[in-house]
Amino acid sequence: MTDLKFEQKRSLSRLEAADQLAALAAALRQGGDAELEIDPWKLSLRIPADLHSEIEFEVEDGEIELEIELKWPITSADRTTSSPAAGDDRTATQRTTAKRATAKRTTAAAKRAAAKKA
Q1: Amphi-Trp domain spans which residues (predicted)?
Q2: Cβ-contact 46, 35 below 8 angstroms
């Protein structure tokens, strides 16, 4: 199950591609908590000292594809938000789950009330 996925597919110039790779390289050099801007998004990442990499190069159907993939394990600190609500030390996942449960209870109560009126 994917916790979060960001994917962007678009055409860009060679210079724009170089800018994105340079921003990624700067974030990797910085390590720790880093922000990577990919217009119009800003991704906040916690980058450890050691990573796993995969580089794939493929020529097929008259097209060249180069994929660079970096992987690292998620730590417990990655699962928490950087600025939780005051007095709320639950993780972002716990808060989202609580909000969904509240929404389900509210919807169920509204359905019961509507059924009583009918």
Answers
A1: 4-79
A2: no
What is the pTM assigned to this prediction?
0.56
Cα distance between residue 116 and residue 100, in whole Å: 25
Domain map (residue ranges) of the chain: 7-74, 80-118
Report the alpha-carbon angle 24-30-32, nearest 5. 105
- pLDDT, one tens digit for every residue, the chain (118 residues): 677 788 888 899 999 999 988 988 988 898 888 887 777 888 888 899 999 999 999 999 999 999 999 999 987 666 544 444 445 454 454 544 555 554 445 445 455 555 555 5
